[in-house]
Amino acid sequence: EDRGNIVLKLNPKLSPIKIAIFPLVNKPGIIKKAKGIQDQLKKEYAVFYDKSGSIGRRYARQDEIGTPICLTVDFDSLKEKDVTLRDRDSTSQIRVKIDKLKEINRKRLQIMEKSS
Asked: Structure pTM?
């Protein structure tokens, strides 16, 4: 599917950033939750935190540099303890429980590595 933007479909092993984390809005609760997820994941993955610009622009910037997974923290994340996970190659989005992120990211990255 042509989204009209550049997508660098790097094998995740070669991607300089594995996971990007986006707070949907600049509200203290959402920022705190997003920073907590960053702290949790940075022990295992190269993560990038981005709060500038529209969510579409943030996705586009990460697509251009080949980041395979983007996580968006929104108001529902505070209530439901989940985030939106967006896959670079398919642009599909799913809700994922925060406490399952390490496991799900590991599986998704392995699948993407095999299909590249």
From this structure: 0.94
